[in-house]
Amino acid sequence: MKITAIEPSGNLYGSEMCLLDVIEGTATLGFDWDVVLPGGGGFAELLLDRGIDCTTTLHRDSHKLSRFRKARSYFLTRRHIAARRPSVVYLNQAGMLRAVNVIASGLDVPVVCQIQTLEDARYVASHRSEHASVAAFICNSHFTASFANVEDHKRSIFYQPVMRVGAASGMPPLDAKWRIGILGRIAETKGHWLFLAAARLMLEAGKSQVEFVVIGEGIDNRTTEAFTRAVMDSGMSDHFDFRGFQKDVPFELSRLHVLAIPSLAEPLGRVLLDACVARRPTVVSSAGGLGEFSKHFGVGRQFPSGDAQGLADALEFTCDNYAEEYARFSVSAEDTLKRLSPDSYVSAVASVITRAAAGETSAVEWLGTPQ
User: Fold this and answer.
1) Helix, strand, coil shares of the chain as percentages rounded to 5?
2) Given 109, 136, 173, 213, which is the most exposed site by the fewest CB atoms within 10 A?
């Protein structure tokens, strides 16, 4: 079965990695994939390295393009799909749904639409007229689905597994300082400023032997500089280590004792799965799909979303009771990864795509295998 995936961003973020998991997993079932995306974001190069065909007819930051350039990229995309004649178009980010609906409807090709972010969910909810060609919307949590407001018979919910679990990071470092990290794109919604406030509270409470590690950069230089400046203005620069964007996530996690995921409204929280693989005790926000996922599997120590003191208390408790917290998290992490069976996940996604190719809608819920 031929499937053309459309990836509007082409970066190396969680949504792109999810698409790669779907492509490589279902390829073993005989699905023949190619991807239409922008070049220059790193994902096209990764696909080519993995032997996956891709076409770079889309442009990065398309919202900044003139109507003519945007229309031309959509024309080239349509021509590519018409020539390839796939059984299904798999849209990996719903923000391009309007253009894909026009293309797919004209070519009579069904669409499976992945909804990864709240922005995409809200877009889908406000453009119900664009749902016509979509056979299934796949949301990454009940939280995300609640914003999408799609038809019940087209709404599927899939948690996302770790497809290739490598070796755990080993025991935490023996440094004199506690290393508490935050991993991911710097943004207020990701909880970076809350993390900064919690750091202040911990230092004021006498936890001076702590280093706060920031792994990642903002979506633009302005955001990165704003957070860096906020740390400098706080007078806590000596307690912060800025690692910038890093590709080797297992190595970065191996240098930590504790990971904080203080997101205010995370659709899922793929970083928590990275922590499970690394066996690093994690303090997670109770909000959104992240809190939903954490509660479903009983993994991570939760704190009330948006509560800096709650975050500081949870981090302090984890450090003060580290041996017990490390053992508790390791057990729950192993159970989480076991229940998120890659084979079961691939089979469920493949069933949605196969039904779409047959002209049928899907409403599948896959939250891992039961305990």
Assistant:
1) 50, 20, 30
2) 173
**Helix, coil or strand: residue 110:** coil
For 146-175, what is each residue's pLDDT tens digit? 999 999 999 999 999 988 776 666 788 877
Closest CA to 78 of 36, 113, 119, 47: 36
Which among 269, 115, 287 has a CA at the least distance from the CA of 183? Answer: 269
Determine the 3-state secondary structure of 242 from DSSP: strand
Helix (H) or strand (E) holding 183: strand 178-183
- pTM equals 0.90
Helices (H), 180-220: 192-204
Q: Which pair of structure tokens corresponds to residue 284?
A: 């997670």
Per-residue pLDDT tens over the stretch 218-254 = 988 999 999 999 999 999 999 999 999 998 899 999 9
DSSP-based three-state secondary structure for 66: coil
